[in-house]
Amino acid sequence: MTEENQKTALILLGCPQVPVQTSMALYLVHGLKEHGIRPVVAGTVAARRLMEVADPGRFYLGEMADLDETIDEITEKQRDFDLCFVFIHNDSGVAYAGTMAYISKARVYALLFGEHAEDLAGEIEFPCEVVAAKAVHNPMPLKRKLDEVMRWAAVSKR
């Protein structure tokens, strides 16, 4: 598959308040690459800095971008993605996922984690795939679900 027609995935990272976000985002980047999908990580300054510190040699990370600038580019139809994974641990994460569901052609995956993952899942009223796990410090509940989701994402036509 050439870079021109390679499937792309946007990974949206909000505030990195919950410890599992950084490790699971890096794990997702790795998994997507393994499936031939080009990931782009967009996040807050703090989220991007944690990713850069966790992968200083850029073995996993490729393109990184500012969260709000990326949303603006999608809104202005300058850029879009095939898949979008939104890490959600609070209400603002739900809002970002909802925004993506309406402005992007991407298949949206809402990845809910943290103490209130199930409660937040109940707030989602827009089209997306919901993946929820009560993962705060231990990434394994979310990892197991992400493994399955990555298989779906790799074969999805959208």
TrEMBL record:
InterPro entries named in the record: MTH777-like_sf, UCP006600
Organism superkingdom: Archaea
Pfam families named among the record's database cross-references: DUF1890
The protein's name in its UniProt record: DUF1890 domain-containing protein
UniProt source species: Methanoculleus caldifontis
